[in-house]
Amino acid sequence: MDITSWQSQLRKGAAELVVLSLLRQGERYGVELLDKAGGAGGVLSDGTLYPLLTRLEREGKIVARWVMADDARIPRKYYTLSADGEMLVAEMQRTWFEFSAFVTGAIEESAHDRPTAARGRTIPASTG
Amino acid sequence: MTDRLPPEAERFLRRLADALWELASDEREAILLELRGHLSERAAQGPEPLGAALAEIGTAETLAGQFLCAATIRNDAPPAPIPPAYASPRRHDIRALFGELRATLRAGRNGLFLVSALLITVLTSSNFLLWLDKVRPELSLTGWPIFLVRTLVLLLAITAAYRILLSEDERPWTVDTRTLRAAAALVAMLGSASILVLALAGGAKQGALAAGLTAGPAATVRNLVAIAVLISVSCAFLRVQPWVAALAVGRRDIGLKRVWRGTGPVFGTVLRGWFAFVFPFYAAHVAITFLAIKVLPFGGNHLLLAELDAFVSTGALFAALLLNATAFRWVSGEAIPAPRPFGNAAPDAELVAEARRRLRVLMAGTPQMRRG
C-alpha cells in the first residue's frame, strides 16, 4: 500500500478541522495560522493553506477582512469563524473526538492481539 | 504600492497571476496580495524561510489549479474588499483585462458559433453590398428593406451574443421580450447618437473643422464644442452598454442607474480596453473602406477587400461585445465562471451508481471491527 497517498488523504481531511479550530481561538491571518499549526504533522503547509481558506470563505464558514498592521508593509487578510462556522467546528470537534477514540481503540486492540497471532504463525509446529 | 520581493518570489507571483487569468480581477488581486504578504513575511525572516515556503507551495500552476477549484463554489457573500491603495494599480492593467476578456469568451458555451453567426451578419455589411450594388445594380441590395433586415439580424445577433456569453440560456436566438427590450435600448442609443452626429455634421458643414481653424475664432469654438460633445456622448454610450447586456439576459435588477454608477470607477479601464481591442478593428475598417471606394475600381480586388472588411467588422463587433460583457460582470459583481476541467457540475449519474456499487461490495467484504 502506498503510505504517502494515505497520509495525504488523512492530512486533507484534518486540515479543515485544524484551521477552523485555530480560528475558534480568535482572528488570525495566514502566516499566523501556519505558525500555530507548525508542529501539526504537516497537516497544513504554505501551499495548501490559502486555497483551503478561499474555499472555506466561499462556503461561508469563515469571514475575512483586510487589515493594515503596524508591523507589516502589505495588508493582511484576517479570518474569523462565521456563525455557521462556529456551529460546524463544534460539531466537527465532537465527531473527531468520537472518531479518534474509536480508531485509537481499534488500533490498540489490534496492537495487543498481533504479537500472539504472530507467534502462532512463526513458532514451528513441533520443537522436538 | 507594494514592495518588491526577491526575484524568485516576484517570478512566482507573475506566473501565478498568469495562471489565475480565469478568475475575476477582484479575486485574482486578493489572492496575489495575500500571497505577496505571505512571501514578504517569509523573506523578512531570511532567504531560507522564503526558499522553504516557495518549495512547499510548489509550482504556480498547481497552486492556481487549487484556487480555481475553490472558485467554482458558489459564493453569495461579497468578498472582503482590498484596501483601495493596493487594488487600484492592477485594475488598469490591460493584460489583466485581456485575461478577463479571454475568460468571458471561454465561459461562453458557443464562441465559434457566435463568431460565425456574427460573420454571416456582417457579410452583408455596407462594403459588401456596395460592391454588389455596383456589379449587379439590378439587385439593388442597398435599399431600405435590406437595411431594415440587416439591422434586425444584427440586433438579434447582439442579444444572442450576450446570452451566450453571460447566461446559461439554452435558446439564445429566440426572439422574446428580452430581445425586444435589448433591441429597443440599442436602437434608442444608436438612433439618438446618429441624430446627434448628423446634427453636428450639419453644423460642421457650415464651418468645417479645417476651414474653421482659419475662418475665425467663432467657427473654431463651434467646431471644438461639437467635437467635445461628440466625444462625451460616445463615452456615455460606451459606459451604459452593460445595461443592454443586462436587458438581453433578463437581469431587471441591473438598471441604467446601477450601470452608470458601476461603470464609473472602471471606466478608465473600459476606455483603455476599447482603444486596445476594439479601435484597431475600426481603424482597419475605415482604411479598407477608403481603399475600396477611393483607390480601387469596383471589381475582383474590391470584392476581396469587402470580404476582408467583413472579418474586420466581425472583429470589431465581437471585441466590443466581449468588453461590454466583461463590464457587465464588473457591474453585477459576478465572478466569471471557471471553464471546464474546473467546473463543479453534477457528476455523471452512471459513475455515481458504479462508485456506490463498488463501495457496497467493499463494505460487505470488510469484517466489522469489535470494540472493548
From TrEMBL, chain A:
- The protein's name: PadR family transcriptional regulator
SUPFAM superfamilies for this protein = Winged helix' DNA-binding domain
Indicate the segments forming the Transcription regulator PadR N-terminal domain, all copies: 19-87
Per the record, the domain of life is: Bacteria
InterPro entries from the UniProt entry: Metal_resp_DNA-bind_regulator, Tscrpt_reg_PadR_N, WH-like_DNA-bd_sf, WH_DNA-bd_sf
Provide the species name. Allosphingosinicella deserti
Automatic annotation (TrEMBL), chain B:
The record's annotation in Pfam families points to: HAAS
Membrane-traversing stretches: 111-132, 144-162, 183-204, 224-249, 270-291, 311-331
Highest taxon of source: Bacteria
Q: Which UniProt keywords apply?
A: Membrane, Transmembrane, Transmembrane helix
Name by which UniProt lists this protein: Uncharacterized protein
